[in-house]
TrEMBL record:
Pfam families associated with the record: SurE
Reaction(s) catalysed (UniProt annotation): a ribonucleoside 5'-phosphate + H2O = a ribonucleoside + phosphate
InterPro entries: SurE, SurE-like_Pase/nucleotidase, SurE-like_sf
Superkingdom of origin: Bacteria
EC number: 3.1.3.5
Organism: Kribbella pratensis
PANTHER family: 5'-NUCLEOTIDASE SURE (PTHR30457), PHOSPHATASE, PUTATIVE (AFU_ORTHOLOGUE AFUA_4G01070)-RELATED (PTHR30457:SF0)
Keyword terms: Hydrolase, Metal-binding
Family: Belongs to the SurE nucleotidase family.
Domain (Survival protein SurE-like phosphatase/nucleotidase) ranges: 4-186
Name of the featured protein: 5'-nucleotidase
Amino acid sequence: MPRVLITNDDGYRAPGIRAVAPAIAELGYDVLVVAPMIDESGVGSARAGIVNRPIRTASDVENGVTFVGIEGTPAIAVTMAQAGAFGAPPDLVLSGINRGMNIGVSIFHSGTVAAALTAAETGTSAVAVSLDSEDPRHWATAATIAGEALGWIAGEPGGTVLTINVPDRPLDQLAGVRHASLAVNRRTRLVATTAPSGEPMIALERTPQAATVPGTDEALLAEGFVTVTPIVGIREVRDDAAATALAKRLMS
C-alpha cells in the first residue's frame, strides 16, 4: 500500500488528526504523521526559515500510530516529509481532519488546504478534509470519507488535489456526495478596528446572511452533502495580452 503523510493545521494533538490517522492505518496504508506542534490555522503555505535551520520536534504514540509534531507550519511538515526528513517520502498526502469547514475562495489562506497544494508542487496527490463544525462530534464520518478519497486519488495523475468538506453528522445521514464550486460570499468578514490600547487590530464580523449560490460548497454543505472540489495551485494564465499592452505603452 502507498505511504501516506497525514498532516493538519490544528496541531499534532488535535482530535481530528488523532481520529483519522488510526483509521487510515487500519486500511493498510503506511502512515506517517507529521504536523505542527501548535495550532497554525490560517497560515496558508508559509514556510519561511526552513532552509539551514534545525526544526524542533516532539512525538508520542496513540492507538499504535506515532504522531510527530514540528515547530513549523503544515507546508513545512509536507516539505520536510517530501525531502525525506522522516524516512521514505510519501506517495500521497492527507491534510486534516480540520475542525471547521474550509469553503469558498478564501481557502487560499487555509493551512489545511495549503498543505495539500504544497504536496502537489512536487507532483504528489493530496486530499484536504474538513468537518463542518467548530465543535465536531462525527470524526469517524470524515475519516471514512478521507479513506475513500485517498483510494481514489491513488489512481489519478500525480499532483491531483481535492478539498473536501463533510457535514458533522453520522455517515448514514449524509445527503450524498457532490462536486462543488467555490463560494464567493462568506458569512463573515475581516474589519479594521482599534484595540483598547489604541493600537490597530483586525476583528471578525458576521455579515448579514446572503442567499447561497446553488452548486457552491457553501450551499451544498448546508444541504448535508459532502462537497468535493478539485483545485490547483499557482499556475500561469496563457494570455500574452498584458505583456503586449505593456510593450506598446513603453514604446509609445
